[in-house]
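User: Teach me something about this protein's shape.
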Amino acid sequence: MLELLHQPPRDRRVLVDASTLDDAGVFAHGRNEALIQTVDFFTPIVDDPYDFGRVAAANSLSDVYAMGGRPLTALALLCAPEHGLAADVIAAVLQGGLDTMRRAGVSVVGGHSVRDPELKFGYAVTGIARRKQLLLNSGARAGDRLYLTKPLGTGILSTALKQKKLDARLTKRLATHMASLNRAASEAAVASGARAATDVTGFGLLGHASQMADASGVTFELAPSARWFLPRVLELAAAGVAPGGLARNREFYGAQVAPTALPAPMLQGLYDPQTSGGLLVAVPARRVRAFEQALRRRRVWSVAVGEVRRRGAHAIVWG
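Assistant: First, the predicted structure itself:
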């Protein structure tokens, strides 16, 4: 559909647009700063309406953090049925979003709502960053080390939740995981001099890593481990639990991924579409120690997942 559009000439103040499939648009603002703009909304991913609001807000903010920015303002986007949902349910969704935005230091300055048969919620977010500190998905270079800042598996676990296969404890952990902000991970990346990152969301780790490798003209060498995943993810994947988007990710990105002898459940988990996933950060080798220290100071979970290589036949190869 996008190929059918007649695009106007690019404004010279646009620093990042859709051409590199980056996480957000970036617009020059003054001499040294840039505005970051993004929008995201989706259908409920958890049962509790307050938690849904929290997750939707954290997910909407994530693209700003993935660019190395600080979110400033947000506009709420609500689609809700005219009948069938009580006012207090919708209010709980909005409250969860407001509380998360407040925790992030973001002002919700308004929004828009429409009648819709299916509940959907999210935000349009505007942030700011120093131009020289932007984290771009086109900024990875050969020799960089790759880090992931949240474990994987939210798509598989959310599907298991819908199938009533999660206990209360893991359900709570899933909601907390998806509602946690990428702010601290982003701050650590910027402070340590990283120049490339993306957040791992709907295209799964392999999809977003492929996009980042292509935009940077490099190859990512990954060495997967069970440590990369949330509890029970590999077990559930082995039992056939999988969201619909997982198969679509594998179909679309599979040609860019080198053949592998990885166990099938682990490969499924690497294609699993994430909601409010962590950051995938490419860190120059000389900055690795500073980055790891910055993560520890901020108490951010992280795992080294691989290295950046010179471009080969595939966007993703295995170490």
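Now, about its shape. The chain has two domains: 2-132, 136-318. Residues 49-66 form the longest helix (18 residues). If you'd like, I can walk through any region in more detail.
User: That's plenty for now, thanks!
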